[in-house]
């Protein structure tokens, strides 16, 4: 993307802005000099400038809007109205991309007085090029804006377009999902330690097992249940563990966790 690379701005220079900017520069061919991030907190600006070497920062949201072709709205949902109020005008030349959980396109249209807006739900693995992003575009958005958004997101991993009504479910599944998987990895490595493995060995084996199992699902296209059956020998070790997980309601707990996160996303949109 380096020739005619867009100038990319961020309102909010926190975790997600850093993860996405890193992906754009490392894998999207966006020159760091094309990135400008605004944040009211000096500490956040300093960290952003240090981690995205060559990027610029400012305390002024309007400066970002005026100097960018694409602006990622990367503030917490509760701060979105304040961020919008800090702007005098959003020029038509600027495409807005909101990554805030729960905030609908309708709400964003009214806050920012523009309809050139796309709503995205990314996740933190943007940082390592393995994000799972979904997005929905405002009615009337041009194909060029959709293609540009998809190209930028694909520099951080994968990007799928979904109807907006599915974005709360996406938020529960892949937006919040990394946290649930980290808990699983932590629990697996604790179990290894309990069985006598050194912590570093247990953690490495747990993380690689999750990565390898995920890759098997993606690379083979086989149903996870079939892949599970391949691991599960008659009268063997795996079925003993599967029985414990079923007794403890593992599937129900995962379904409830993702449903609770999706419900919270809906609530955030109504606040
Ligand atoms: N952390 C995650 O895993 C994910 C977060 N998101 C969404 O991304 C957004 C950002 O989340 P994080 O990066 O985790 O939060 P964060 O708290 O790390 O970053 C937000 C930044 O916004 C700044 N800020 C506050 N008020 C501002 C204003 N008026 N103008 C400009 N900047 C302002 C804060 O100082 C902070 O540095 C949220 O809306 C969240 O729903 C979406 C997907 C995943
Ligand atoms: O916890 C949150 O609200 C954000 C949105 C998705 C992941 N983190």
Explain how this protein is built.
With 271 residues, this protein is α/β, with parallel strands linked by helices. It folds into 2 domains: 8-163, NAD(P)-binding Rossmann-like Domain (Rossmann fold); 177-270, ProC C-terminal domain-like (ProC C-terminal domain-like fold), CATH 1.10.3730. Helix content is 53%, strand content 13%. The chain has 12 helices and 8 strands. The chain has an 8-stranded mixed sheet with strand order 3-2-1-4-5-6-7-8, sandwiched between helices. The chain is elongated. It starts with 7 loop residues before the first strand and ends with a helix. The model has no long low-confidence stretch (mean pLDDT 96). The structure holds 1,4-dihydronicotinamide adenine dinucleotide (NAI) and (2S)-3,4-dihydro-2H-pyrrole-2-carboxylic acid (A1CAB). (2S)-3,4-dihydro-2H-pyrrole-2-carboxylic acid binds at residues 101, 171, 175-176.
Brief description of this entry?
This protein is α/β, with parallel strands linked by helices and 271 residues long.
